[in-house]
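agent: user wants the full assembly modeled, not chains individually. Plan: 1) parse entity lines 2) check alphabet per entity 3) run joint structure prediction 4) return tokens. Steps 1-2 passed, two entities, 930 residues total. Proceeding.
--- entities ---
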Amino acid sequence: MPDHDGLMRIFWPLDLSRNNSPGIIVGWRNSGLDIFVVAILEVSDARNVENALKVGTLFRNSPHPITRIYELCGQSSIHVLGLANSPQEEVELLQIHATTRPYLRMPQISCERASTIQIIMYERPMPTRMQYISLNPISLALEDKAEIAVHAPESIDAEEEKEEMKNRAQTKHLVEKLKLHTVAKHPPSQKELALPRIVSQVNCSWELHEILHKNASLVGNRLRRSLSVSERVVESATSMRDFVIVTIWQIITLYLYPIVRRGFVIGLLCHRVAAEALLIVLEWRANPQYAALKDISATAQQVEIRLQQFCYWPMQYITLRKRKDDWESVTTSHPDYIRFYNSLWLVANDVIIGIALGSYIIDNSVWVAEFIGEILDLYSVAALRRTITWLMDWPAGLKLNNELAAFLGDLFLWVIDHWSSLVTALQPFLPHLIWFIGFSSFAGASMPIAVFSDLLSILTLHIYSFYVASARIFNWQYTILLSLFQLFRGKKHNVLRKRIDSCDYDLDQLLLGTILFTLLFFLLPTVVVFYLTFACSRMAIISLKAILDTLLACLNHFPLFALMLRIKDSRRLPGGIRFELKDTQHLTSSTASDSPAPPPTSHIYLKSVPLTFRAMFHQYFQLGQRIRKHYLSPRVLLCLATGKFVPPIHRKNLYSLQYSMLPARRARVVDMWNALTASAPTKEKKAGFESRHHNGRRFNGLNGRKH
Amino acid sequence: MLTTHPHLRTRRPSPTTVEYTVSTSPSPTLPLRLLQLTTSILRIIIGLTVLLLLYTKYLLSAFAPATHPIGPPETFSTATIFYILTLITHSRLGTLCTRLASITPYTLLLPTSFLLIHIILQRPHTTESLLVLRGLGIQTSTSSASYLSSATTRFIPTEKVQDFLVNEAFRGFEVRYYLVVVVEGEKEVVVVFPRLLPRRKMVETVWRGVRGCLWEKGEVGKG
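--- prediction returned ---
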């Protein structure tokens, strides 16, 4: 073993007994001087334990095959690592002598080959409570989404995307350059490479310890007598009772359960087919570049998310069921578990809030309709009309061009008149609409919010069109003014070379241009005033919709379950590991008198770091940043200032947060059918396996008693 | 008075494990301990007063419940807490707070009290440490600014550590030397002691120590 420095590393569980009695230390040996203690067996002879480990006596009655644990921990077998509290006995070169005392918090360890020792104390995570440790923070979102979210919006925000790509390439280049700075390369030693394995050994340690302790009595020269007559009578009576219970249970599982199960599966599949049909409608696009229904409407999007969730749940549940067929220490499915129950809980929450909201809306539908009608009338018609009239009549003492202001104002007022007649025609239907919204909220509070968001975009359509029209007019005037200004200076913009050239204009050209420039310049304030009004109202609507969308995101995606887990049992949400160096002073005073002074030892605690709240809300931060980047960037401000159209943020960008809980591609109907029907035989097989196992246990037990 | 210049402390229980701690907290002497005790008592008193002020403001508002029972309840329950609260609000300090709360408007009271609570929750010292474990890795840790959150730690396994070096940077009008861990496959380097950024002498000591401790000798090859 290439251990040049004689450093011995020992992982020692915190909950091991600290009494004086001798024992055998059992655990993994990752490399020569790198050992991982699992248990101390209070058996006298080390050779017996070694034999028992080889034969497998110590792993009897294990619920699942032990080779799976070996595979997880990356070792082929468990070894005897040394002796506890028996300093006189001889051990092999690489084995250790440990001394534990009730008053010592840490064991004292010596080994012949070790010149320095690191004792790393770890607390065993309880796999039955789904606690575990991991090197990397647990990810609450599905991984396969991240890549797609990066590549999808290329077509929409092409400029930003390009900029980002450029930045990324630059940092990649810098990182490559940084590698050149490293002069000395250190090939990783065996101890360093063992870290991931050690993490899974820590995770498996509790279950392994339980099994070893259960079977510790089977090892060695303990006296075993055969059962007495009365004990045999009791045993056969209990086995008779077990037999009756098992028979009744089998009747139920064989005849009743499959029928119920089949019915349930067929119901699920019918639901799945219906969902598929609806999803196809929602995702249909006439042309790959065109927007689908779900990209336009928040309601369609919400329905789509729910349907996708319904499609994903059975698959997720089946994966979670498979967890039961394996050791509890296997930690790969724990994030799935959190995701599954988080989405279930959120939907349940959503429905509960929705029922409360819906019953309120339905009960007061007339009042709510009146209220909404009033607001609609006030803000989208009356206030707008008043503002336009104000603008036509020298607003705030600003002397605008009367004729142009009257023209523009009359134009807008005329459209508003038409729109208001439309709104009044809609007024009688409003209570029905409100009733419909209230009814839809029984499917969750997110539904009325989404419907409301859509309603808002429909009912403010006129403001949107005003904004587009006035922005267009303003933009024309602005560009014309720019080019006429060049003319005024005796220059012109060279399109081919993209620069300003000087140019000799004729007198009539100059005269006409200058007159036009003056005219347009004096007309500019009037147009600007109208443009500003509509741009402001457009921004207000956009921010209102952003608030509604954020509310939707909260209802659909809030990490409620994870937050609850973080408060209840933070070890279920590991965010990495942490080491803590402990003082060793009190140990030196209590050295055992007969043994030689132990090599310099450092005591370290290994602790799990809980996931930070920041990491939990990471996607919200991302969303906020995306919105900020889209609407508060200098580019957008420039667009606003020059009257160019500000494109609304694409729904796909906004909703990547909500989809992060769903797989990129949903499972097909056939897949679901296969998964649902395939899970039945495995279950039966498992039952058969268990009964066989049951017999085996009895057989083993008898065997054990014989020798 | 409560803080000093950052100074270095080293703990090396065995040659393969070192912890370097840079801290602004001075070495504890008796007067210093007394001072710390008095400041913490002062913090608690200020905090409780602010809370009492907010509570009296709440009692003056329209949301407050009508009246509380006057007599002391028999067993310990929520009623007891309310009883104690009424006792406090009717004491001299309580009446003073009520008077103060009735004068100050919400717009002044709320930001001021939040600011005060934020200030008294600030930690006076900053402690940053670097733990080097041969065969495992490097761990940096930084104490948080307030008492509400715990220290943030970052553990980097040795196989991920590409390099450990001293870098220099402009900070204001000075040049600072700082320690950097280059992590393999990451865009950003990890700065050791990011808040204190100790002086060059300390940085060099730590750098030498880490170089000697982290990697086994004799395995270094030119790369």
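agent: reporting back. Chain A is about 60% helix and 10% strand. Residues 243-288+290-328+671-707 of chain A form one domain.
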